[in-house]
Specification:
Bound molecules: adenosine-5'-triphosphate, magnesium ion
Shape: elongated
CATH superfamily of the largest domain: HUPs
Structural class: alpha/beta
Radius of gyration: 27 Å
Mean pLDDT: 92
Oligomer: single chain
Low-confidence stretches: none
Number of strands: 15
CATH class of the largest domain: Alpha Beta
Helix content: 40-55%
CATH topology of the largest domain: Rossmann fold
Number of helices: 14
Strand content: 15-25%
Length: 392
């Protein structure tokens, strides 16, 4: 008997001819997730599913690691055999039950046999009945319920392996990271942008990130917080190249020259320009922000028209229709929340106006920005040149 994890995936299953590309990507991501767990695990593909061989390894640790891999719908701890006669199957089922449920409470059950190996002498129906019979004998606390059983005992009779399993652990679903191209995440120290990055990664998009800091107005600790958040996102999204841009001089210049109620919006246009510069340099196919419609003045639809205008790449805003409560829920689920709420200063809040425009007009903003012509270019260039890159 082999202790194995059966990995079922959802959406990859419906891919046509290039399904193997997604599968190979998933295998690669599973292997790298398992690298951090002690021991060597074998990952193998087998007709529309995967197996992780966990012999003598810590199953729970492996499961925990795989629960962070996008593309996996279910993780099933399986007792796996090469081939079994009916008598051997009965013994194997009883062994599986004893090991999986050392003290089984009263519950309903169903046996669900799939006979792929047509050479097996009994039909699925017959296996269901016989195995159901021995379970009822062995466990008086069990009752059959074929519609909504609490315990589903699955038996798969396949030509080269027989699988017995009854537990299914939910995976994250989504698509394997890397199968969807790469995007540049504008990562701040807040709650929203790490969640936005996580959701993009869920659709198979790998990430690089850019953070704007404003020393000495923002501290080293504020920067470290962003590094920590990038590490949390990278548990799901894989390696991230974080660009830390020194934004102080640009911000000061805007503050000095432009109307204060337009500060945030003009500043955001510069952020987008710089983010796009690095996005193109890193072969990213889009920008990602944590904006949500109406959350603050700079996130009204009107404001987004104005910030978007400086970008040529698509800007993805996966949270645009999320309420804050729902964003917080995901933030907690991915263990980012505690870090996100640490009270360090943010570059946007330092120079913020008391009454920012909520419905900026593009022509007016462009006109205000014109005042920076001939002054800002040098600072912009300097910001690009002094950007620090941190590999996460
Ligand atoms: P978050 O919780 O992600 O900080 P927020 O609610 O504070 O978002 P804003 O400050 O308006 O909202 O920022 C909107 C988006 O702009 C952020 O989600 C992020 O993608 C980007 N952003 C804001 N500040 C920075 C920064 N200092 N560095 C990088 N990106 C930033
Ligand atoms: Mg913020």
């Amino acid at each position: 008997m082999k202790q194995t994890l059966l990995i079922k995936y959802s959406e990859i299953g419906v891919k046509g001819k290039n399904r193997y590309v997604f599968e190979d990507m998933l295998v690669k991501n599973m292997k790298s997730a398992l690298k951090v767990v002690d021991g060597v695990y074998e990952v193998r593909k087998a007709s529309g599913r995967m197996y992780v061989n966990c012999e003598e390894k810590d199953l729970d640790e492996a499961i925990e690691a795989l629960k962070k891999v996008f593309g996996i719908a279910w993780i099933c701890p399986v007792s796996q055999y090469d081939r079994l006669s009916m008598d051997e199957l009965k013994a194997a089922v009883l062994k599986h039950m004893q090991e999986t449920y050392p003290s089984l409470e009263e519950s309903t059950f169903k046996v669900n046999c799939r006979r792929v190996d047509k050479a097996f002498p009994l039909t699925s129906m017959e296996v269901n009945e016989e195995i159901g019979g021995i379970l009822l004998d062995a466990y008086p606390q069990l009752k059959v319920d074929v519609h909504k059983p609490e315990l589903m005992l699955n038996i798969e009779l396949r030509p080269y392996d027989v699988n017995i399993y009854s537990k299914q652990i939910e995976g994250l679903c989504g698509m394997p990271v890397g199968s969807g191209g790469k995007a540049m995440l504008l990562l701040s120290g807040g709650i929203d942008s790490p969640v936005a990055g996580y959701l993009m990664a869920k659709r198979g998009v790998s990430l690089d990130a850019v953070y704007f800091h404003a020393p000495p107005y923002t501290s080293e600790r504020a920067k470290q917080k962003v590094v920590d958040l990038a590490k949390i996102v990278s548990r799901y999204a894989g390696p991230i190249k974080l660009h830390v841009v020194n934004f102080t001089e640009i911000q000061m210049k805007i503050y000095e020259i432009c109307p204060h109620d337009e500060l945030t919006i003009i500043m955001r246009r510069f952020m987008m320009r710089i983010a796009e510069h690095f996005a193109k340099q890193e072969d990213c196919l889009g920008l990602v922000t944590g904006e949500s419609i109406g959350q603050v003045a700079s996130q009204t639809m009107q404001s987004m028209v104005v910030t978007n205008e400086v970008c040529t790449l698509p800007v993805y805003r996966p949270l645009c229709c999320f309420d804050k409560m729902d964003i917080v829920e995901i933030s907690e689920k991915i263990d980012a929340y505690e870090t996100s709420i640490l009270p360090y200063e943010d570059c946007c809040t330092i120079f913020v106006a008391k009454h920012p425009v909520t419905k900026p007009r593009l022509d007016r903003i462009q006109k205000s920005e014109k005042r920076l012509d001939g002054i800002i270019e040098e600072l912009y260039q300097k910001a690009l040149e002094t950007t620090e890159v941190i590999e996460i």
